[in-house]
Amino acid sequence: MASQLDSKDLLRFITCGSVDDGKSTLIGRLLYDSKQVFDDQLMHADKDGAPDLASLVDGLAAEREQGITIDVAYRYFSTAKRKFIVADTPGHEQYTRNMATGASTADLAVLLIDARYGVQVQTRRHAFITSLLGIKHVVVAINKMDLVEFSQKEFNQIEEDFREFADGLNFTDIRCIPICATDGDNVIKSSERMSWYRGQDILSTLESVEINRDETSLGFRFPVQWVNRANADFRGYAGTIYAGEISKGDEIIAVPSGKTARVERIVTMDGDLNRAVTHQAVTLTLDEKLDISRGDFICTKVNAPQHSDQFQASILWMGEDKLFPGRGYLLKTCNRTVPASVTDLKYKVDVNDFTHISAKTLALNEIGICNLSLGKSIVFDAYKGNRTTGSFILIDRHTNETVAAGMLNFSLRRASNLTWQKLEVGKAERAEQKHQKPAVLWFTGLSGSGKSTIANLVEKRLFDMGKHTYTLDGDNVRHGLNKDLGFTDADRIENIRRIGETAKLMADAGLVVLVSFISPFTAERNMARRLMEDGEFIEIHVNTPLAVAEQRDVKGLYAKARAGKIKNFTGIDSEYQEPKNPEIVVDTVSLTPEQSAEKIVTYLEENRYIEIGE
C-alpha cells in the first residue's frame, strides 16, 4: 500500500478568488465527499446536522469568527489516481500577500468566481498574480450556480468575460466549470441540475490534468547550504537539488568561481547513491578540493546559471509602508541574503487591463517592474526558467518583515562590464597628507533646529585649525545637484541617496565632510552610514523640540505649512524619525550654537579624527 501511495503523482494547487466566493467550502466539499475527513474533525464541524464545510479548512480562530480566510491553510489528501496538496488562500485584498505565498509553489490554480457577481477586481488581481508566479493551468470554478438558477447563459457570459481578460496572461490551459460547492454539484460528480454542462467535474479535472515539470532541461542546480566537515578527511557539500539530476563521476562547475571537478560520492543518511534527482537532499563530495562555501552553486557545465548584481525584476509589494526607490532592503534568494535597493521603478501594472502606469512608489498589493542593485553578486536563473532560483523576497532591514516577493526577469548585463579602476593614490594617502581621518559629520534635525548654523561654525573652527573640509547643505544642493527633486517621501529619499554618494566620494578624497540635511527617515540615514567605512559616519542629532523650532521659524516655513501653503513639511504633515543611537546629541535649548560646535570639535579631537597642533 505504501509503495503504491509513493508512486502516485503529486499535484500542488491553490484556491483563490474574491472574498466569500466559496474557496474554503469547495475544499471542505472535496475532503468530505472523497472521505478525507476524520471523525473528530467532522464532529466539531457539524452545523445543524450538516457538515460546516468551510470550518474543515479555516483553522484560525480569527477566521472562524470573521468568516473569512486570513492565513494560507494547507491540506493533504489522496485519491486512487493522485496525491494532492491544496493551499486555501485568502480572498480579502488585505491578505493578497498570503495568496502569493500559496501560489509560489503551486502547479495549478482553482480560481473561484461568484456566479452572481462575475469577474471582480480581486479575480483579476489573483489571476494576474498566478500568471506572474508561473502557474500555467487554471480551473475557473464558477460557484453558487444555485443562486442564478443554474443558468447556462450566466455561466457562458462569465466564461467569456474571464477568457477575454486572461488573453493577456500566460496561461496555457483554462477550464471553466459551473459548480455549487455547498451541495457538491460538479465537485466530485456531475450535476443533474446542470445537465447542459458536458465537461469534467473539479476532482476529475484535478486527477487528470497533465502538468509539464521539465526540471532537467535547465541543467543541474544545487545550492550549497552547508559545507560538511565530518572529520579531517571528509569535505562534503550538503543541500537540496533544485533542478536536474547528478550521477557519480559527472563533471561539475562551481558558480561563481568557475572551478571544475568531478562528483566522487553522492552521500545520504541511507548510504551512497549512484544518481540523485530534483528535490533530493544529498551531500556531494568531489575529486578536487575547490573553494566552495555556503551560498555557492554546484552545477553541470552544460547550461550553467548566470551571476549578477544588477537585475530587472517583477515585484509584488507586500509592505504596509510604501516602496521607495533608493531605500535599502535585504534581498533573500533560495541560498543567499544580500543588501539591495530598487534603483528605478519603471512602472506599475494595472491588473484590470495590464496597462503600465508611471509611478514613483508602490503601495500594498501593487505590482511593478523595477531595476535592482545588489550589494553582492548572486547566482540566478530567469524566473520563467526556474521558479526556485529565479525568485526572491525583500526584507525590511529594521523590522525584519517581508515587504515584497519578486521574480528575476534578466540581468542588466551592462553592470558586468564595469570594474574598479585601481588608483595609485587612495583614501589613506590623501588623508595622511592632510593629517586627519576622513569623516562624514551628518547633521540631522527639524527645520529651524540650527543644523546649518552649527555646521558652519564647526567648519570655520576646523578651517582655522588648517583642516580640509567641505559642507553639503540641504538648501544649497537643491539649487544644483538636486534641483529636479520635490519634497515627497520618494524625492526626499532620492535626495539623501545622492548626497550620501557625494559624501562618500568626498570622504574618499580624505576630507571631513559636513552634511546638513533634515534627512527625516532612519532608513536613509542608515543607508548613508553603510556607504562609509566603519567609524567614518558620525550622526549628529541637532535636538530641538518642534515647538521651539516652530517658534524660531526664521524662514517663515512653519507658518506657511500650518496654513496649508507647503505640503509634506517635516514635523507638520510629514514624519521626522529621531535618531536612536547618534554619536553626538546637541541640545539647542540648553546650548548656544557656539557651545554645540565646541562639543562636536572636542569629539573629533578626542577620537583623533583631527590631530591637535598640526
Topology overview:
Elements: H1 2-6, E1 10-17, H2 23-33, H3 39-45, E2 46-47, E3 50-51, H4 61-66, E4 73-78, E5 83-88, H5 96-103, E6 108-114, H6 121-132, E7 137-143, H7 152-166, E8 173-178, H8 202-208, E9 221-223, E10 226-231, E11 234-240, E12 245-247, E13 251-255, E14 260-267, E15 275-277, E16 281-286, E17 297-300, E18 306-317, E19 328-332, E20 337-349, E21 356-357, E22 367-380, E23 391-395, E24 402-411, H9 427-434, E25 439-444, H10 451-464, E26 469-473, H11 474-477, H12 489-508, E27 512-516, H13 522-531, E28 537-543, H14 546-552, H15 557-562, E29 584-587, H16 593-606
Parallel strand pairs: 1-5, 1-6, 6-7, 7-8, 25-27, 25-28, 26-27, 28-29
Antiparallel strand pairs: 2-3, 4-5, 9-17, 10-11, 11-16, 12-15, 13-14, 13-17, 14-16, 18-22, 18-24, 19-20, 19-23, 20-21, 20-22, 23-24
Brief overview, please?
This protein is of the alpha/beta class and 614 residues long. The chain is 25% helix and 29% strand.
